[in-house]
Amino acid sequence: VGEGQISNVYKTEVELLQTACEKMYGTPTVPFTFVVVTKRISTRFFAPNSGTIKNPQPGTVVDTVVTDPTKYDFFLVSQYVRQGTVNPTHYNVIEDTLKLPPDIMQRLTFKLTHMYY
C-alpha cells in the first residue's frame, strides 16, 4: 500500500472491520490494532562500524527523526543480508484501540515477521 492510499485503506478496511465487530459482538469498541505494511521503500539505514558503515542488525527499529511525528509509524529491519544493503520495512499503525506500548508493538511485529514460512 502506498502512502497516498492509507486514507482509502482506513475508510474501507478499518471501518468494515469495526462494522463487522459491532455486528458480531454487539459493540463497536472491540480493541484491535490495524497496521499497514510497506515493503517497497527507498529508505536505507546504516550502522557505524569502526570508521566504516554496515547494515543494521535484524530487529533494529527506527521510530524517530525520519518518521512522521504526526503519525504512529516505524521502520523495522527484520532480516540479515550477506551481500548488499538491507531493506527495512515501513509500518503505519492507522488504528490502535488495543493501545500496546510502542516497544511491545515493535517487538511483536519483529517476531511476527519470522512466522511467514
Overview of this protein structure:
By secondary structure, this protein is α+β, with helices and mostly antiparallel strands. It has a domain at 33-113. Helix content is 27%, strand content 23%. It has 2 helices and 6 strands, in the order αββββββα. It has helices at 6-25, 102-113, and strands at 33-38, 47-49, 52-54, 61-62, 72-76, 89-96. A 4-stranded antiparallel sheet has the order 1-6-5-4. Strands 2-3 form a two-stranded antiparallel ribbon. The longest helix is centred in the first third of the chain and has 20 residues, at 6-25. The mean pLDDT is 91. It holds the Pfam family Piwi. GO terms for molecular function: nucleic acid binding. It comes from Melanaphis sacchari. Residues 1-117 form the Piwi domain. This is Piwi-like protein 1.
